[in-house]
Amino acid sequence: MAEARPRFSGLLRALPDDEERSYALAGLNDLLTDLSSTALPEAVADPPSEDLSPYLRNYVAAMVEQAAHLKGVAPPEWVADVEPLEEPRFVTPLAGLRLHLLAASPVPFRRRNIFVDSAVGDRV
């Protein structure tokens, strides 16, 4: 999948656009799911821009880390350079779901203080 690295970079560039963000995140999910264990490290070698918000940098890092774990490869070094969020972020404003999200979030997301109900490869 030689086009995977430019596709990854293009999806990262679309993240700051509020109208495109959900599509870009879905595209990242699809890309990371479809990549083989040999193609993943090359595709995600370039880190997200420093211009991305800390939340989005952490979200991408968690997605990449989760994909690497699922494929049995080491994540790129740049994921360790992304400082976790200081305050927890939940993907829903519904307080009643927070306990569920605290338990259900995949480890790479929890480590980054992001609480989601699905991970790489899942669709909601």
Characterize the structure shown:
The protein has helices at residues 4-14, 21-34, 40-43, 54-71, 98-104, 107-111, and strands at residues 89-90, 114-115. It has a two-stranded parallel sheet. Helices cover 48% and strands 3% of the residues. Helix 1 runs antiparallel to helix 2 and helix 2 (21-34) packs parallel to helix 4 (54-71). The chain has one domain (4-115). The model has no long low-confidence stretch (mean pLDDT 91). The chain contains six helices and two strands. By secondary structure, it is mainly alpha-helical. The two termini are 26 Å apart.
Distance between the first and last residues' Cα: 26 Å
User: For the CA atoms, what is the radius of gyration?
Assistant: 14 Å
Question: What's the helical proportion of residues?
Answer: 40-55%
The biggest beta sheet is recorded as:
2 strands, parallel
State the strand order across the main sheet.
Answer: 1-2
The mean pLDDT is 91
Summed up, the domain count is 1
Q: What is the N-to-C order of secondary-structure elements (H for helix, E for strand)?
A: HHHHEHHE
Count of alpha/pi helices: 6
Return residue spans where pLDDT drops below 50 for at least 5 consecutive residues. none
Give the strand content. Answer: under 5%
